[in-house]
């Protein structure tokens, strides 16, 4: 085997190893802060360590029963900060986050999951980008 072929084979192996490492990094870094994933009729539901699996399953089943989870792809996350639940929802680019209709819908939805899932605890609805970065926080309607 020539020196050229030997170096070429080594370089191919190095490239393969680097490709695997980069792929692993992208996968791990992309999911690191979203939490544990469940799936409910097309909706990815992530829940953090602040939420029990039972709470996450109750929320997921609620989303299906109330036709939020209708087979179309959606991504949501449930978290809790202190005594406040945070329902985080990825929204489409260009959604008017300041429209009265979208704000009222978020307030009402927060109040509904508060009453039906979280025993009347406070809920905030976070409109988020596709990386779950909060774009707007809407507190629930007063019960």
Radius of gyration: 21 Å
* N-to-C span: 78 Å
| Relative strand content | 25-35%
Biggest β-sheet description: 6 strands, mixed
User: Architecture of the largest domain, CATH level 2?
Assistant: 2-Layer Sandwich
Number of helices: 3
Shape: globular
| Main structural class | alpha/beta
Detail the poorly predicted runs.
10-32
Order of helices and strands: HEEHEEHEE
Mean pLDDT: 83
CATH class of the largest domain: Alpha Beta
Adjacency order of strands in the biggest sheet: 1-2-3-4-5-6
The total domain count is 2
Count of DSSP E strands? 6
CATH topology (fold) name of the largest domain = GMP Synthetase, Chain A, domain 3
Describe the structure.
The structure is a single chain. The chain has helices at 3-31, 53-65, 100-116; strands at residues 36-40, 43-47, 74-81, 84-90, 123-128, 134-139. With 143 residues, it is α/β, with parallel strands linked by helices. Strands 1-2-3-4-5-6 form a six-stranded mixed β-sheet. The chain starts with a helix and ends with a strand.
Secondary-structure blueprint:
Elements: H1 3-31, E1 36-40, E2 43-47, H2 53-65, E3 74-81, E4 84-90, H3 100-116, E5 123-128, E6 134-139
Parallel strand pairs: 2-3, 4-5
Antiparallel strand pairs: 1-2, 3-4, 5-6
Short description:
By secondary structure, this protein is an alpha/beta fold.
